[in-house]
Amino acid sequence: MAVDVAIREALAARLATLAISPALPVAWENVRFEGPDHGWVEAQIFRSGKTRLGNSTRHRHFGFMQVTVVAPREIGAVKPDEIAAAVAEHFPVDLRLPAGGREVRVTSEPALATGLSDESWWRVPVTVPFELYD
């Protein structure tokens, strides 16, 4: 299995086990999605790079997954922030996820950004950094 696919599948499988109430569907990049009125989460994988480990044939693949909590505007920031915190807690530092015979590891605490408003929604991004060695 390609490394990038293994990373995506491992992180997606973990995100799918997030238990919050009400349950929020996940919108992945380049997949048709109609969000419900009560909100959803958006997920994107950003591959930051690949570095060779010394003179070996091994590599470190690294990047981050951005999970954005999307909530209706004007409901306040507390509930979206609570959901974002639950996302962060679901991906603790040093979490190791099986990935096609390898492991994806969360390299540091996920970071919650300040909420942002657009025309209809309040968005709270959560950044989950990761790495995989092959």
Number of helices: 2
CATH topology: STM4215-like
**Secondary-structure element sequence?**
HEEEHEEEEE
Number of domains: 1
- Return residue spans where pLDDT drops below 50 for at least 5 consecutive residues: none
Q: Approximately what portion of the residues adopt beta-strand conformation?
A: 35-45%
Distance between the termini: 12 Å
From the helix content, strand content and strand pairing, which structural class follows? alpha+beta
**What number is the mean pLDDT?**
94
Q: Largest sheet, if any? A: 8 strands, mixed
Give the CATH level 1 class.
Answer: Alpha Beta
CATH architecture: 2-Layer Sandwich
By DSSP, the count of extended strands is 8
> How much is the radius of gyration in Å?
16 Å
Q: Helicity level, as a percent range?
A: 10-25%
From the spread of the alpha carbons, the general shape counts as elongated
